[in-house]
Amino acid sequence: MAPCRPPATGRPEPSTFPVRTEEDLLTARHAVRAATLAVGFGIVEQTRVVTAASELARNAYIHGGGGTLTIEYLHRRSHGRGLRLTVSDDGPGIADIDSALTDGYTTGAGLGHGLGGARRLMHEFEIHSTPGNGTTVTATRWMTP
User: Fold this and answer.
1) Contacts 24+ apart (CB under 8 A), 75-79
2) Whole-angstrom Cα distance, residue 66 to residue 71?
3) CA distance linking residue 52 with residue 62, whole number of Å
4) What is the strand order of the sheet 124-129 is part of?
5) What angle do CA 24, 100, 112 make, to 5 degrees?
6) Average pLDDT of the residues in 61-83
7) Distance between CA atoms of 118 and 111, rounded to whole angstroms?
């Protein structure tokens, strides 16, 4: 997929990336890093957003059987500039979202800090999941003054 390019308005259009292979995970990570630079995030915010994106994309790949990552550029008077990441899959879904967000909860070999950690790294975080119908996570980070 092509990197985000600014249209005539100067703000990049949303870009969607597949998350189906290990290579896709790397491509998605690089795309998110480039997006954080385009928005103007400092190194700490860049690291937060890229870390959250990596965790969410990896979850879609491992637990959801693959999916997509969409990067959206935001601008609001009340919040300034930001990025919204939407990661979706068509996997088995999350039966108990509250438990999945609890540190130490894991369905695999990980440490169980993934979803809860990603939520703490972002300013806004929503999970929509239906068992048997997949999961969509939307996470937003705004530039801090």
Assistant:
1) 75/11, 79/142
2) 17
3) 15
4) 15-19, 67-76, 80-89, 135-142, 124-129
5) 70
6) 92
7) 13
**Predicted local confidence at residue 95, as pLDDT:** 82
Could you give the dihedral angle defined by the CA atoms of residues 71, 73, 76 and 79, in that order, rounded to the nearest 10 degrees? 70
CB 49 within 8 A of CB 85: yes
The model's pLDDT over 13-47, given as tens digits with 9 standing for 90+, comes to: 899 999 999 999 999 999 999 999 999 999 999 99
109: tokens are: 């070999």
pLDDT given at position 108: 54
What is the mean pLDDT of the segment spanning 60-85?
Answer: 92
Q: Rounded to 10 degrees, what is the CA torsion of 88, 62, 1, 130?
A: -10
89: which strand partners? 67, 135
Q: Comparing C-alpha atoms, which of 58, 30, 59, 61 is closest to residue 46?
A: 30
Radius of gyration of the chain (CA): 15
Residue 32 is encoded by which pair of tokens?
A: 């998110």
**Res 29: pLDDT:** 97
